[in-house]
User: Fold these one by one.
Assistant:
Number 1:
Amino acid sequence: MPDDGRDGYAIQDPGDRQHDARARRRTAVRVGVGLLLVSTLIAILLTVVRDTDGRRQKSADCIPHTVASWSTATPLTTEFTRYGNDGTRTDDWTGGDGTHSLRLPDGRLLWLFSDTYLGPVHAPPNPAGEPHPWRDATAPMVRNSGVVMTEGGRLAATLPAPLFPDPAPQQWRWPVAARVEPRSPGSAEQVVRVLLWTRAAGQAPWIYGVPLATEVATLSLPDLRVESIVQVLNQQSVADPSRRVLFGTTLVERDGWSYVFGGNDGQAASRPTSSAFVARVPEGALADPAAWQYWTGSAWAAGARPGAVLGDERHTGVGSAFSVVRRGGTYVLFTMAAGTEGLSTVSSYWSCSPTGPWHGPARAFTAPLPPGEVAAYNPQAHPELGGDGRLVLSYDVNWLRTTDASAHLSGNVGLYRPRFVTLRLRTAR
């Protein structure tokens, strides 16, 4: 190539310049296509990143969530006080725990409770001279109940109790999570499905009963009549009762699946930190045992032994009852006894997948408690009562000592009822 002698810059002829221009255009196209492919790949990876065991690890709409603030939800707590203290009937709810709720298609709200007191409530003072409404020591207690709230938020009626009969002498059923779903996959008819924990009377340390199995009850709509109860997971073959897993403490719906969470009892007497487990069931198939798939720790499998998704049972984990909600692509778990705070403080975890990994625990709030030797437990979220970025959470209250609990719960009926708080969650990128 000739040189014009000006500072060593070469001068190209027109043919060479045209050739180089075409080459640059081809290179630009290749680079553009490459960048587009890389951008597409990055977008896919941000949407769903999976590791070798198939778990969803991160998504674009999965953002860490923690509790920003909370306040007492006084109107809800007051409504349960009003209904429980109403002495006009002797066969309705006056106190209970295990508080779960479900919005029905007609707008009503079904509240499900475990051990429930019935019978009349008397105005104060009580026989001990204390200024508390009270019930007779002989007031009946049943193992479960259902209470219906109107769409306007007024408790209206207790369904015939117990709603779910005892399966055998010295055994009982505690209702937990519930959902409205098709009677069968693809069916236009809807029913209510309620998860049940079956337990049996036991000796210390099993003062709260020995876990036996998970069942699913089908209730008709709109009359809420129990049609059937099916056992989906029998745990009696697990020799150590503390290793038995019962499912249904909470349930999350997504993409045509019900993700059903469960836990073990850890050490029965003190209800310490336990492990969390998860199963999934196609919509409409909760009452079909063959449709259940359990997360083993590496895959979903039918008929498999569940593997824990959260909990080393010392520093991290859950109480025997906990709750999970979904905010976009983020799952947020609320629990007490998370390994650090015991039966007074609600802690939270977050994850991009029901199977984890779960991040936390983060301290959320210390539950307000009435005076006395009482404990808070079973935090349960009620998404159907929230809105505008708010989440309603309930927790149950009970007397700590089992030796004199009945006398205290009868002498002050306000102890054994749910309390409610309203949470605001914040995100952190």
Number 2:
Amino acid sequence: MKDMTLDTNTHVVTRDGKPIELTAKEYAVLEYFMRNKGRLLTRSQIADHVV
């Protein structure tokens, strides 16, 4: 998503300039997906990353 930003230093996610409240686990899943954009991820890969 071009209108979504994720700051890995502060763990702040914004969309259209508005902050989005996420739990630690939700943030970890989103970060993993964004770092692996365009890749097919298995449940195991996601589960291994998001503990």
Number 3:
Amino acid sequence: MLKKIVLASNNSGKASEFGEILTPLGVEVHLQKEFNVPEAEENGLSFIENALIKARNAAKYSNLPSLADDSGLCVDALNGAPGIYSARYCGEWGNDKGNNDKLLEALKDVPVEKRSARYFVALAYVRSYDDPVPVVVTASWEGSIGLKPMGQNGFGYDPLFVVTGRNCTAAQIPYQIKNVISHRARALSLLVAELHRCHDI
């Protein structure tokens, strides 16, 4: 029998991404909206705090183990911004074009060699709402911010994120490759290893 895990998200694309890795391991991934889980108030000051807030919230309302991720873009020249505010950097949640435009404006006087950045992700898994020993893993994907958007794949800041070691942006990389080398893919691999070690899967 498959083990049910609630993904603290309503993003079906994200559920598919997690499901591809977890389903073969005997885990069934469900979106939180299936259990009428209300959106959590992400008031943490770090990716890890926000991931835990979301995971505990989903577990509380579903009474099932829950998994959450919190991720964003950290630009060195901007002291780590947009960071945990990546999705709403321009003031409007999920406005990719607005966010990218604001980022380019913020970096307009920064030379190419000083535009280093990374995608960062924290994954948090809780067995119950009050789990005292949650499983938390983090991973990053190194790159820099280009001078203009390039590529049609991906979302968020992918058209501006030039991947270290590859002469292209994250939006120019095929999904099959991105889903192996991205920060989220790396974090998922770490999570699976940790869940195995703890005998949770």
